[in-house]
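This part of the workshop introduces the protein records we will be handling. A record pairs a protein's sequence with a compact description of its fold. As an example, a complete record with its sequence and its structure tokens follows.

_____
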Amino acid sequence: MTGRVEFNPEVPAVAPVVRVGVLGAGVVGSQVVRLLVEQADELTARVGAKLELVAVAVRRPERHPDIPAGLLTTDAAGVVTDGGIDVVVEVIGGIEPTKDLLLTALGRGAGVVTANKALLAEHGPQLYRAADAAGADLYFEAAVAGAIPLIRPLRESLAGDRIVRIMGIVNGTTNFILSNMVDTGMGYHEALAEATRLGYAEADPTADVDGFDAAAKAAIMASIGFHTRVAARDVYREGIANVSAADIAAAREIGCTVKLLAICERVPGPDGADAVSARVHPVMLPTSHPLASVDGAYNAVYVEAEAAGRLMFYGPGAGGAPTASAVLGDLVAVARNKVAGGRGPRESSYAALPILPMGDVLSKYHISLDVDDKAGVLAAVAMAFADAEVSISTVRQEGRGDDARLVVVTHSAPDAALSATVRRLADLDSVRAVTSVMRVTGDMR
């Protein structure tokens, strides 16, 4: 049978092609391009069509010698308007002009894969509307927790369940800083300097250490988990700049560690009906909790659902190659939909639950007080809690004389009442200083 070509009915004579344009070739974008080239044959087999990279939009082409010159362009607008490009991958970040670029791509029916958490947290509904109007896909696995498969499990695998809580470490920079403080005893500024030196913190770390990055991710997780539109502005936010070595030591004394958590919950509102609480702040977390052992720059998300129970997602939350892995996973899904003529999940916001203000959220506080060592101090402190209708779980006195200290852990109470109690305590003549205030999450043993 020399020279005979056998026909394989599973492989079309002319394979379809899905053309891809990439916006950005930075840390993540360059890895996306590399994987598209190096894994071209495998990706073709997985998709059932050739993924053809046709354009990479960058600001300075001369800075990207590893990318073929014929692919590079400075015309991002030209990429998103090119009717020959089927899927646009966005890894440039920012709000403008990125929002208009993606709206343009979606408006003409191109699929969009993005890692842009800030854009989704602020303008997600607008992007979803554009996608729905054109019948286009919008995928964003890489926007939360890097390489960790999280978005797809939340909006697909758990679509038939009722999620009650999503709680996670979703910022590697802050987790690295806090882990260093726990492990070495160093203060916040020392730990931040070390994170910067090692490349875990940006030159301007504001988005990370002040909680903005985590808040955007919390908004996305809450929106998907509770079928409700939650924007970054709806998320209560505190960063880690005020966490001290004394806070770390105090947490250790009660069997806890300190973590910056994004916490999204389905909770009863003031009228008893369901509401959504979304918040980012440092907490004292019992060392028995699965999230407590997540150290360094790693991320982890802990999901509680009524039927599935408790689920844990863990892995690298940032970095070029890990994030590119999530981007490529989305690209394969969108390309498959293009080939099959189908669509991925759309926005699900039918529940439209109200957002519970932070003051109404039930919290537990750990409070350390420097106090005068004299009779009546404990009674005065207890009265401040009673006046705010806050119940005390435990109280202990440490030291004598000038070193006298009271440590109080409360039962759950509205956060506004707890904050008011702290202000009352600071005004007491017998309290020299309120030295530490931190929320406690999880069951204390």
User: Anything to note?
Assistant: The first helix runs from residue 27 to 38. Residues 19 and 52 are 5 Å apart (CA to CA). The mean pLDDT is 93.
